[in-house]
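To whoever is covering the structure queue this week,

Two jobs came back overnight. Logging them here so there's a record in the thread.

Job A:
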Amino acid sequence: MQDNPHGKAAKRACSFSPEENGSDILTYPCFSGAYDSSSSLRLRANICMHSIKCYGTWKSSESLVKDIPVLSDSKARKKSIIDDTPALFNIEENSSALGSEPLIELEAASQVSKWCGLIQSLAIKHKVDPNLAKAIMYMETTHGWYDKFYPFRKTILPMNVHYQYWRDLGATEENLNCPFNNIEIGVILLARISARIKSPTPRKVATIYNFLGAEKVNKYGARVGRLMKEKPWVKQGCVR
């Protein structure tokens, strides 16, 4: 997201789902531009920030969808996320992305069990599937464990948020070293990305979290999708 702001940790907790509908599709009812998974692609009123009234008048769902810009450029997508303006991020499935475990993945480095309760509460607060947030954190901490040896990093675990790239979303180096802030900003990114994908799946959402300009599911997204099914954090004690 720099175009890939997630490179490769936590000190103290301080201050700063969607539900599965019988398929692999996720629904996010709250943020502006949030879509449900029905074939009519209804645009829901945003009761949190903006509402459909931001268009001036209440419109039919078909009319609203026509008004929504389709964005592929990472800069335009970033601006939509920060400003929380309606947009569609098109991304295709990719059958060649299998989600197999890479050699670099170090299970012992996972921080999911450490922050299990915080992930759960913040994911519910922002209408994100807690297991999606857990899978993202698992990916970032088990793949980015070596970051602590790199003194000039600009991304901070456990959600591996790039503090310069997302400064307009409230990210700073100082507040991202607070686990609460770090996890909340990561979860907000997941919520806003999900709200801008037609029929969002964990694979698609995670891919764009990893690379904002992605238009096809990549290995990262595929791995997150598999982790959501395997839930390796359960055996580490995160069973919520």
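Job B:
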Amino acid sequence: MPQKWFHFCMIFACITNMSFAQKQILFTKVQCVLMSSQFIKVDCVQESNNSITIHLTTNNKDIANLWIVSDLNLYIFGVKNVMRLHGLRTEYCKAPTPGSRPNLQTMLYQGIKNAQKCPLRRNSSYLFAQIKFDANYLPSYLPEYNFTYVGNLFGDSVKSGELRMLGSFCFTYNDCTGTAKANV
């Protein structure tokens, strides 16, 4: 009988430890594509495995509204089991409501460091430096997975650019970067 309690306590401790473990979102590839003349430049740079920097330069016209329509594919157990989140719209010019519960939308808003003042002025540069996405906004029960992200950037209802990212979501004590060296 004491042995059963010991096993129960060990299993409970392991589950509790995993549910409170820190999680991270890592990027393996980041790419930006310019798609209209509203911007002169759309550049993406992967600063580290968990942060990116985006640089936008506007053309000779003010941009009153800016938003991103996101498509996210989560590969939890290989290519056959995919969870798709399509058409998630994130407004750049509007801040999230205070006290909103942690979710994917809030994580995107926090990643771009709160809303900026709009309109975006003509012939100006905008730098989104060291963008990091906080994995604590995601549900605690979510397993580790790989993801592909496509963000379509719209300025005044014109598709102006595209942001593509590949990456993974995992616990900090696991190496999900694919760069771990085997012990030989």
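Note for Job B: The beta strands are 23-34, 39-48, 51-58, 66-75, 82-91, 125-131, 145-155, 158-171.

Please reply-all if you pick these up so we don't duplicate work.
Q.
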